[in-house]
Design brief:
This protein is mainly alpha-helical. The chain has 17 helices and no strands. About 45% of the residues are buried.
């Protein structure tokens, strides 16, 4: 009953939402790039670069990398610790998305170090959530949730609702991937209630897709299909290929379940294209794996081709022992850099 009520309220909200919604978004890229051309080489320029890389992160990975590196270089030149930590985090996120987990871990730990040293709560919770997402992608869910719940506590303490919503979503996803559906639904529902009075256009696709994934695993196929389909226009409008790929994949999986192979292939290929647009290895892996299954007993050559692609990606991503070995090395480096940073700050203060 609660599930049905939640979805009813969600659909009611969507169907009665005003055409022009208030968006919690950074300024459009053209105005930011215009400001960048006249900005001096100071901390304000770093903030513009950070806004630009956030804008391009889900739209143009190469542009995002450029702005992240420019911001990091300038922050280090200015000894601007806040900017350095923020840029490092974005760089770590890009490494995570592209499957370079050891490099991502080192970079994110360095970003976290700096945020601890300068005692910036907002940066700390962002870095904790990013580290948690990295562990989740490696299947280290218990370790991931240690980071997530620490981030959640900080968000609650500083009343940062938008990042709290992202953290609740991350916790829910970690339970979903372990097939602990009641816990996944609980945290997704908490996220829904938190955002209920501030329906941001660009965030709706995430909420719809997440709920669709839970219902799909619960066997509520019709409800899941409706949620995935409702998510797509929002993802397209906001140019969000990651969520778009997840929705397409959800639809493809439902068609595969009912034996509608042509439809399943069509949407799985759409999911693959969206994942490739973003160069997101996890989305590409999920789509190629599903395609290999659908093509079984249909086209052995295509099935083998997608199976090889999925196997190669999986081997590169899910080497947990390799990550643990690296983590031990990174921890030593983490402590060394933390001490060095503290000494550096004290020297500057004196």
């Amino acid at each position: 009953m609660k599930t049905l009520l939640l979805v009813f309220l969600l659909f009611l909200k969507l169907n009665t939402a005003p055409a022009q919604q208030t968006m919690l978004r950074i300024p459009e890229n053209d105005s930011l790039e215009g400001r960048l051309t006249t900005a001096k080489a100071d901390t304000n320029r770093v903030l513009i670069l950070l806004n630009l890389l956030e804008y391009y992160y889900r739209r143009d990975p190469e542009m995002a990398k450029k702005y992240a590196q420019d911001g990091l270089t300038l922050s280090q030149k200015l000894n601007y610790d806040k900017g350095e930590s923020a840029c490092l985090r974005w760089i770590g996120l890009m490494h995570t998305r592209e499957g370079r987990y050891p490099q991502a871990l080192e970079i994110l730990q360095n970003a976290y170090n700096i945020s601890i040293v300068i005692n910036n709560s907002d940066l700390i919770q962002n870095n904790l959530r990013s580290i948690g997402n990295l562990y989740s992608r490696q299947g280290e869910y218990a370790e991931a949730r240690l980071s997530f719940f620490r981030a959640k506590k900080i968000c609650e303490d500083i009343h940062e609702d938008f990042h709290l919503a992202q953290t609740l979503s991350a916790i829910g996803k970690s339970y979903l991937e372990q097939n602990i559906l009641d816990s996944a639904f609980y945290f997704y529902n908490q996220n829904y209630k938190l955002m209920n009075n501030r329906w941001q256009y660009h965030y709706l696709d995430n909420i719809l897709t997440e709920l669709g994934q839970v219902h799909a695993k619960k066997g509520n196929d019709s409800m899941a299909m409706n949620l995935f389909r409702k998510s797509i226009p929002y993802s397209v409008a906001e140019k969000e290929p990651a969520t778009l790929s997840s929705s397409y994949l959800g639809i493809a999986s439902l068609f595969q379940k009912t034996g509608q192979k042509d439809s399943s292939i069509l949407y799985a290929q759409k999911a693959l294209a969206a994942g490739q647009e973003l160069n997101s290895v996890s989305h590409i892996l999920a789509a190629t794996y599903l395609l290999s299954l659908v093509y079984e007993n249909l086209d052995e050559q295509e099935a083998l081709r997608y199976h090889k692609m999925a196997t190669t990606l999986k081997d590169s991503l899910f080497n947990v022992d390799k990550l643990r070995q690296f983590q031990n090395l990174a921890y030593v480096e983490h402590q060394r850099k933390k001490i060095y940073k503290l000494l550096n700050l004290r020297l500057r203060e004196n």
